[in-house]
Amino acid sequence: MYDKVRAIVISSLKYSDNSLIVKCFTQTMGTRSYLLQGVLAQKKGNLKTALFQPFMLLELVATHKNNGTLGRVKEAKIAVPYYSLHTDMYKSAVSMFLSEVCAFVCTSEAPDEEMFLFLEQKLLFFDRNDFSANFHLKFLLDITRYLGFYPDTTHEHLPSFSLEDGIFSTTDESKYTITGATLLLFKTLLHTDYHQLSTVKSNKNERNALLFQLLKYYEWHFPSFRQIKSLEVLQTLF
Questions:
Q1: What is the DSSP string of 33-84?
Q2: Which of 45, 60, 167, 227 has the maximal Cβ count within 10 Å?
Q3: From CA 79, how far away is CA 77, in angstroms rounded?
Q4: Residue in 201, 52, 78 with CA at minimum distance from that of residue 132
Q5: Cα 14 to chain center, whole Å?
Q6: Is 0.85 topped by the overall pTM?
Q7: What pLDDT is recorded for position 45?
Q8: Does any domain span residue 81?
Q9: Could you list the residue range(s) of the whole structural domain that residue 122 is in?
Q10: Same domain, yes or no, for 153 and 195?
Q11: What is the pLDDT of residues 58-75, one digit of tens each?
Q12: Long-range interactions of 230-238: CB distance < 8 A, separation 24+
């Protein structure tokens, strides 16, 4: 039985000589993986490989089973087009990086429409607005609301943030804490709207220091979280 679903492409992996396994986060069926048999050899048909780039917003007609079985895609089309996400060098690097992060954290088949709408809205904002070097940091912070470990800001006045506990604290003895200038940027981004990200003053070293800590934060809460392959490219560009 085929279902029509809205989906965000998270990753694609070559399978055999001419096929792809595509992982998508869907609006109504959670995270699903699909086998696109022979898609790399097709010269005709509607399943073009360009449709399955990271973070493409699609409408799919596909099969779905709740036992981890790969679905099959009958039809795929763009739900909302991008204008710059995959053509702007900086935006493309950020989208590649964030899609890798999402591949580790978007794993449940349980539907989460709120997180789907968050992803869709923020990706479209990123596509349609001027590039901000702070976007990926803000995104990493905000998506934790839906993953269950958004920072507890109750005692935000305290001088350090514990990555392990997700709270502000009085001690910085552990190496798993955010302090100093990195903490200041962390706090600023927590309270900055996406439209105001360009007003946040930060340099490359400060951003990379916070990014390092945020990835450690993810590692604490997702034991299966691994090194992001595109991280080096991101850090080199900005």
A1: EEEETTGGG-SSSS--GGGGSTT-EEEEEEE--TTSPPEEEEEEEESS--SS
A2: 60
A3: 6
A4: 201
A5: 21
A6: yes
A7: 67
A8: no
A9: 87-235
A10: yes
A11: 999 999 987 778 999 999
A12: 230/93, 230/96, 230/97, 230/100, 231/97, 233/93, 233/96, 233/97, 234/93, 234/94, 234/97, 234/136, 235/208, 235/211, 237/89, 237/90, 237/93, 238/90, 238/133, 238/204, 238/207
Q: Which residues pair with 169 in a beta bridge?
A: 160
* Bridge partners of residue 2, in order along the sequence: 63
Q: How many domains does the chain have?
A: 2
Tokens at 107, concatenated: 């794993």
Task: Tell me phi and psi for residue 141, to 5 degrees.
Answer: -70, -50
**Contact between residue 104 and residue 224 where contact means Cβ atoms under 8 Å apart:** yes
One-letter amino acid of 190: L
Residue 150 pLDDT level (bands cut at 50, 70, 90): very high
